[in-house]
Amino acid sequence: MSHQVAVIVGSLRKGSFSRLVAKAIVSLAPPELSFTFVEIGALSLYNQDLDTADPPETWKQFRAQVKAADAVLFVTPEYNRSVPGPLKNAIDIGSRPYGHSAFDKKPAAVVSVSPGALAAFGANHHLRQSLTFLNMPTMQQPEAYIGGAGGLFDDDGKPKTEATTTFLRSFAGAFATWISKVLAG
Fold it and tell me: Total domain count for the chain?
């Protein structure tokens, strides 16, 4: 069975390492997964006063894209030991209005990415806290902390080493299995 996965990248930077990792996972994933990148850069800051019967168009589009997906892959850098503001904002927009979360019960996976050695550990775990509250069953293993990201990809965005390729392929395969397991109930 085929499953549609929304990919949400926490970095807005054009050449972000997080986006490179997300694209690599997509390219190495098993054929039963198809992916849509759900962009978060144009989302205005969440303000409950705007969350009326006619919220901002970008919010409606974001919520619809997430709702249409079977699962969500989050790939994020770390800012100040947590997730970047745009990612937290996207989570707030998608989880509201109360009782109508676009994220509810969707299987999720988290990948944290950093040029440093800590591999965005803080962001990974802060994001997992939010996903627990959002009622998103989140894959526990394999964990994906990608450190030293600046040296992992060539100029075309392809992994430089077989070890990186193997890990990302294994992660994508495990996520496919996780999605099927969660959706089967």
Answer: 1
